[in-house]
Amino acid sequence: MAQTDNTKRNDQHKATLKAAHRKKHGRRHGTPHTTTLRRTLRREAPSTVGLLVDAQDFAAMRRYGTFPFDDHTVYLQQVEALLKALTAQGVHITVALFDPEDFEEFCAESGLDADTGASRSRFTAEIAADTGASRSRFTAEIAAAGATVAYTGQGIDDLIPVLVSRAVRQATWEYATLLLADLGTCADCGQDIGRAAFDRASHLLMRLLETAGPGTHHLVCSVPTDNDQLLAVLHTHRDSTGPARLDSAEGAEFATVLAVAVALESRGGVVLRTSAPDSPDRVHGWRLAHGGLAPLTAGEVFNAYCTDADTGEPVSPESGVEYCAGFDIGAEPPENHH
Predict the structure, then answer these.
(1) Which of 16, 70, 224, 337 lies 20 to 30 A from 231 at CA?
(2) Do residues 67 and 60 make contact, with C-beta atoms less than 8 angstroms apart?
(3) Residue 61 contacts residue 67 (beta carbons within 8 Å)
(4) Alpha-carbon span 183 to 338, nearest angstrom
């Protein structure tokens, strides 16, 4: 009987030890808890994918032996599949325009071998083991520069035009900013001419938006320079009460391009198209003159809109659009700088 009791106690002791052992060592390497935490962190880590948007850029990258694709259409399909797969995992993705010339220059300046890395299109934040590779570092550079688009599930054919437009906007803003920075200071008052021109352009833009009234507004600023034609576009909306609502980045880009026209006293122009419910679109126009916006006549606005910019040939006017004279925006008199 004593032996039986001892046996029972031993069995109970062993069961207790096994239970304690299971409790202590039940979570081993890669346990469900650890895996869940890792997946959560992974979803919260943003990723950037560099995209070769056209066949010419794609062909330029094919000279690298480690570039794995030989067909641009297939490449785009694979990138789209990657974007969808990452989105399905809950990963926030940013797509950046991958320019082969900028990539080559970046590698040369950084002392990096351009023909390295598993993939030019891989995102920068996902593969920690490859953060030192040339293409990942370059993708991080262009993402920081701002020429990117957030991926929200759109098709690749819809994504590419938006990305190209964003890159053009970024390049235009950078070029305009450099032009303003190189103007120096005023010989009379010592004020920074570029800064003063930007302040003046911001004032003109705010006055234009305030006097445009309610509606959805589409503004275009065109400024010729020695090397290129600068264009800036701004979309705003204003209710019957309250100020106009606009994207701050678009507003800064528009003001910067307008500032170039103000500073250089160039033949710049601004066009405003306003849409409102149950009424035709209205188009107004101004020319840059003496640091201000001089209204165009209705005929000048019509001619500007209904003339092919490349050939000079007339084009048919849009139906449902009224071509109107520009109006006085009530801007303050400009200061003169030399």
Answers:
(1) 337
(2) no
(3) yes
(4) 10
